[in-house]
Design goal:
Elements lengths: L2 H18 L1 H37 L2 E6 L5 H13 L3 E7 L1 H11 L18 E6 L7 H12 L4 E6 H44 L1 H9 L4 H36 L4 H7 L5 H32 L1
Antiparallel strand pairs: 1-3, 1-4, 2-3
Helix pairs in contact: 1-8, 2-6, 2-8, 2-9, 6-8, 6-10, 8-10
């Protein structure tokens, strides 16, 4: 018998085994599907947020928010101090109307809060683009920012890099929690698949005993169970991929916004989809190997 013929027989027997224990097989596939779905969610969110944060850092500004009653002379003096700073490369004036338009583009659902004629929620500002700041210059920059914030006509001086650093810290925590949760859920999925494969092998215990008596190799005996575990893992991965696709499309259909760009800007590439399917199949195979290894040990002891 050639290897191709053996694999065909293994696949047929594996499908029969899945049909005989359909409910528990579906439970195992659903378990690994949920674990891979959550792993995919954490991966996509962290990757999209990382890309978004990188673009935010490239566009980071030092923003000076101006009081509504500021005089033209005071505005000019503040702008002159910004332009004179050694780490400032460009200064842009942002009117209240421009600030409202930016807010409406980023948060369409909240646009009525700052619509023309409504409350003047967003003040005019001066935005300064900073060159890369060396660590040794951070102290001087913070002291300069503190003095600038105390000038007449300045309501607030804000460095975008501060809140970007906080978001990066949150992203690191989310990534760590995602890895931990994924490891726990994948372990539970492997255990579930191992239990299902062990149950199936118990149903075939008489046939297995006869096959061993007539000299069948362990590879030929265990091959169908290995494929059964792989099929369960592959089915779970397909469930996870379908769920991720549905969530991604639902977010995309909600319309362009800052939240959509940060959480659903990019989806899995074909290579990443193949890796997800392969990971599911590998998890199922590992579960089958663990199950049959325990079964073999138990048989040897008895």
């Amino acid at each position: 018998m050639t290897l191709l013929q053996a694999l065909r027989d293994f696949a047929r027997e594996a499908l029969v085994g899945l049909a005989r224990s359909l409910r528990v097989s579906l439970l195992a596939a659903l378990t690994i599907g949920v674990s891979l779905f959550l792993a995919g969610v954490f991966y996509l969110v962290s990757r999209n947020l990382e890309t978004t944060i990188a673009s935010w850092r490239d566009e980071a500004r030092f923003v000076v928010y101006l009081a509504p009653e500021i005089s033209a002379e005071a505005r000019a003096a503040i702008e002159a101090q910004l332009r004179a700073a050694p780490w400032v490369t460009e200064v842009t004036r942002v009117s209240r109307q421009e600030a409202e338009r930016r807010f409406s583009r980023s948060f369409p659902s909240l646009a009525p809060l700052v619509a023309e004629g409504a409350h003047a929620a967003l003040p005019a500002s001066l935005e300064a683009r900073l060159r890369p700041i060396a660590e040794a210059e951070e102290g001087a920059l913070r002291e300069w920012a503190r003095r600038l914030g105390g000038l007449e006509g300045v309501e607030l001086a804000d460095d975008d890099r501060d809140w970007i650093s906080q978001v990066e810290t949150v992203l690191a925590v989310v990534r760590a929690l995602g890895l931990l949760l994924t490891a726990v859920l994948v372990g539970a999925s492997v255990f579930t698949i191992a239990s299902v494969v062990r149950l199936t092998s118990y149903l075939y215990r008489d046939e297995i005993a006869v096959m061993r008596l007539v000299g069948a190799t362990e590879f030929y005996i265990r091959g169908p169970f290995y494929l059964e575990g792989m099929f369960q893992g592959l089915l779970g991965a397909l469930v996870a991929l379908g769920g991720l696709t549905a969530v991604h499309l639902s977010l995309q259909s909600s319309g362009p916004s800052l939240v959509t760009a940060a959480l659903a800007g990019r989806f899995l590439s074909p290579l990443e989809m193949a890796a997800l399917l392969g990971f599911g199949a590998a998890a199922g195979l590992i579960g089958a190997i663990v199950s049959l290894g325990r079964e073999s040990t138990a048989s040897e002891r008895s």
